[in-house]
Design a protein that fits this description.
The complex is a heterodimer. By secondary structure, chain A is of the alpha+beta class. Chain A is 23% helix and 44% strand. Chain A has helices at 2-17, 39-44, 56-68; strands at 28-38, 51-53, 75-81, 85-88, 93-106, 111-125, 131-140, 144-146. In chain A, strands 1, 2, 3, 4, 5, 6 and 7 form a seven-stranded mixed beta sheet that branches. The radius of gyration of chain A is 15 Å and the shape is globular. Chain B starts with a helix and ends with a helix. The interface between A and B is large, with 36 and 40 residues.
């Protein structure tokens, strides 16, 4: 199970980092929760997120907005993922925590550590038996975001 | 410090005199001639004279050096942030009980806002009177009093110095001189005002009260939204790569919203062809722009523009679901108070944005997402989903985060040039159309008044 979940994390990050953004929502169940927040918001119990999607369709919409609507400078991410920590795995589901570092490289070559934090994931197998995210809360250690958060973390 | 300020006052007066005599063109030429050599010798000249005299008459041109000059930034700190303006500090609900406090910034100045024993919300500079260390290190909390960590000097909740460690020395040796008076020392205290659940502060103890500062028209717009107890539902900080004024201008720029932001236009959240308008207070300090709900039927006024992307369809449009909650048909209202306070209502997405400059080409935008304490679960769920429009990752706001940087980089070699702010004429008065830059001109009216330019 550990290797399966690590593989899912790697595949999801690879879709984002290589610019295959349209593939990214496919790692989620149709009914899901994806939220980007910060450690401080999480500790205080604040509900809002920088990104807050409660369906796979909303994730698809975010990608199409990035492709067709939004204005932002060309940039790419590189995710470095930690080993997933499996918290619980009752029948057919799993809860996992995985640390991440995202380095962002802008079109002019400027690089920065853009986000560091932990994915709090709830996973389930889909009908085909593959692990998918039922919930992914992206908890960033810092509350400060440089310029904008366009590409999902 | 005093000499510096006096020099600036003299220069500002000179500027006013010159403005009356000279014309914009000759001034601009002069500016170009005087700034270029000083930039060549920048390493040798610690401070170059600003071409203040070249400020064009009227409000329709903004010289680009105003976004780039370190001396302007220093003057803004003394004249605006520590000067005549009122500044947002925190929410009343951040400090509900005695001893609750929150720390914030007014420009470069760190500030503590606290609820005192008598229930008043007070504020003082977050700086120990002894060696200048921060008194409070946390964003907020609860305390009986404050103690500087460096040498344990203590302050009460109002920022009064109450004790000095080893003031009498040890065994009769050391200690402070006998004539050292506690009451003669302490951090600077602010005058505070609570308005619609917002806490504002100013160092100008003789300034007009906050409601006069904002003006009656915009006060109505403020009360419209903040009419009952709010609840914080999220806090984020967006670091923007631009001078703080570029962001505030963007907020007050009713002209750009539907042109830059495809989302607004495509989904008819705000279009210039929708009803609404902009109001600007007499002194230019406050503005409020509104957009009414879209009329039914076709609207071809944006045909052919990038921002009207009719091919763009949402698979899950549920996050666009909204309910009118202010007994009117205003879809969107953006309100600002010079220099750094913004209140946002986009459908049911409510937020406060606070501007904190961090150098000539950098600023922090502190977002506080709000709901009301009595939100139904359904309404709260709507706010969370509509939150996707605003903030650092907002379908709309992310572009405002980037566009200031585009200007800052674009003007890097344009100290002798000026921006054009002429949509809708030359006045800073309110208007029934948002195809105007009246509110941006209002910003400069307030800025120039407080800066003495």
């Amino acid at each position: 199970m550990l290797l399966e979940i690590a593989a899912l994390n790697g595949a999801c990050a690879s879709a984002v980092d290589s610019g295959r953004l349209e593939d990214w929502p496919e790692f989620f169940l149709d009914q899901c929760l994806y939220k980007v927040t910060t450690a401080e918001n999480q500790e205080k119990g604040y509900q809002a997120g920088l990104i807050y999607a409660d369906s796979k369709a909303m994730l698809v919409d975010r990608i199409s907005a990035l492709r067709e609507a939004n204005i932002y400078e060309r940039q790419r991410y590189r995710h470095i993922l930690g080993m997933p920590l499996i918290i619980a795995s009752p029948d057919g589901t799993a809860t996992a925590e995985t640390s991440f570092i995202v380095v962002r490289t802008m079109r002019d070559g400027h690089m920065m550590v853009f986000a560091v934090g932990v994915y709090l994931d709830k996973l389930q197998r889909n009908d085909a038996g593959a692990w998918r995210y039922a919930e992914r809360i992206v908890v960033c250690d810092s509350q400060r975001f440089d310029t904008l958060l366009a590409i999902p973390l | 410090m005093v000499d510096h300020a006096r020099a600036r006052v003299t220069r500002a007066q000179t500027a006013r005199d010159l403005r009356e005599i000279g014309n914009w063109l000759s001034c601009l030429t002069k500016a170009a001639n005087t700034t270029t050599p000083s930039r060549e010798n920048e390493m040798d000249q610690p401070v170059h004279e600003l071409p203040t005299a070249a400020w064009p008459p009227g409000l329709t041109r903004v010289p680009y050096w105003v976004y780039r000059d370190a001396e302007v930034a220093r003057d803004e700190q003394s004249r605006i942030f520590e000067g005549a303006g009122w500044h947002y500090l925190c929410l009343e609900v951040d400090v509900p009980d005695t001893g609750d406090y929150r720390t914030t910034m007014i420009g470069a100045m760190p500030v503590v806002a606290a609820r005192a024993e008598d229930g008043e919300i007070v504020a003082f500079e977050n700086r120990c009177a002894h060696r200048g260390a921060l008194i409070c290190l946390e964003d907020g909390g609860k305390s009986k009093d404050f103690q500087c960590v460096y040498h344990a000097w203590r302050y009460d909740l109002r920022g009064n110095l109450t004790s000095v460690a080893f003031r009498r020395g040890v065994n009769g040796k050391g200690g402070m001189p006998d004539d050292f008076k506690l009451e003669g020392h302490g951090p600077r205290k602010l005058r505070t005002a609570v308005l619609c659940g917002l806490v504002f502060g100013t160092l100008a103890h003789d300034a007009p009260d906050i409601e006069t500062y904002i003006g009656p028209e915009v006060m109505v717009r403020l009360r419209r939204v903040l009419h009952k107890k709010v609840e914080v539902i999220g806090r984020f900080t967006q670091q923007l790569p631009n001078n703080w004024k570029l962001y505030m201008e963007n907020v007050r720029d009713t002209y750009h919203a539907s042109l830059l932001h495809t989302f607004f236009t495509t989904f008819r959240i705000t279009r210039l062809s929708q009803g609404g308008g902009v109001m600007v207070s007499e002194n230019g300090v406050a503005h409020a722009s509104t957009t009414l709900a879209a009329a039914k039927g076709p609207d071809d006024s944006y045909a052919g523009m990038r921002s009207d992307n009719q091919g763009f369809q949402l698979q899950d449009p549920s996050f666009m679901n909204a309910v009118p909650e202010f007994n009117d048909n205003i879809n969107l209202q953006i309100l600002s108070v010079f220099p750094g306070f913004i209140l946002q209502q986009i459908h049911n997405a409510l937020a406060i944005r606070q501007i904190v400059p961090r150098g000539v080409d950098s600023m922090d935008l502190h977002w506080t997402y709000l709901g009301f304490a009595d939100d139904t679960p359904e309404l709260r769920a709507m706010r969370l989903k509509q939150g996707n429009l605003a903030g650092p990752a907002g379908f709309v706001s992310m572009e405002d985060g980037a566009v200031g940087g585009f200007v800052q980089r674009g003007i890097a070699a344009a100290d002798g040039e000026a921006a054009i702010v002429e949509m809708g004429g030359a006045s800073a008065e309110g208007s029934e159309t948002r195809a105007t830059e009246a509110s941006v001109r209002g910003f400069w009216k307030a800025w120039r008044a407080q800066m003495g330019v």
